[in-house]
Write a structure and sequence with these properties.
By secondary structure, the protein is mostly beta strands. It has no helices and 8 strands. It has a single domain, classed as Sandwich (Immunoglobulin-like), CATH 2.60.40.1090. Strands 1, 3, 4, 5 and 7 form a 5-stranded antiparallel sheet that branches. A 3-stranded antiparallel sheet has the order 6-2-8, with no helix packed on it.
C-alpha cells in the first residue's frame, strides 16, 4: 500500500534544491531509509519515503533538483516496509520532519 503526497515549491534563479527527512529509524535493518512505527504492536512494519523510485535516506541531504524551475511539484510516496516476522492488524504511525536547502 502506498500514499502519494506532493510538495510544491516556488523558486527564483534556478537554485539547486536538496531535502533532508529526519525521524526515528527502524532498528534491525541494514538500510537507513525506513521510519520506525511509533505505535506498539507492529514493530516489524515501518514507513519508507520514496521520490522518483529512490528511497529517501533518513537524516541525509539528498539533491532533488540541480536547477529548479520557477514552480516545482515534487511527488513522494510513503510505503509500508515489512522487515519480516509477525504482523498484527492495526494502525501504523511514523513521523518525519523535512528541511529544504536552496543553493
Amino acid at each position: 500500500m502506498t500514499k502519494e503526497f506532493n510538495i510544491n515549491l516556488a523558486c527564483e534563479n534556478k537554485p539547486k534544491v536538496s531535502v533532508k527527512f529526519n525521524g526515528d529509524k527502524m532498528p534491525g535493518i541494514a538500510s537507513e531509509d525506513v521510519l520506525v512505527n511509533k505505535l506498539s504492536g507492529n514493530d516489524n512494519i515501518g514507513i519508507q519515503l520514496v521520490h522518483n523510485n529512490n528511497a529517501m535516506k533518513i537524516g541525509e541531504n539528498i539533491e532533488l533538483l540541480s536547477a529548479a524551475a520557477d514552480s516545482e511539484n515534487l511527488k513522494f510516496n510513503a510505503y509500508y516496509y515489512y522487515k519480516g516476522g509477525t504482523v498484527q492488524s492495526g494502525s501504523i504511525k511514523a513521523n518525519s520532519e523535512f528541511t529544504f536547502t536552496y543553493q
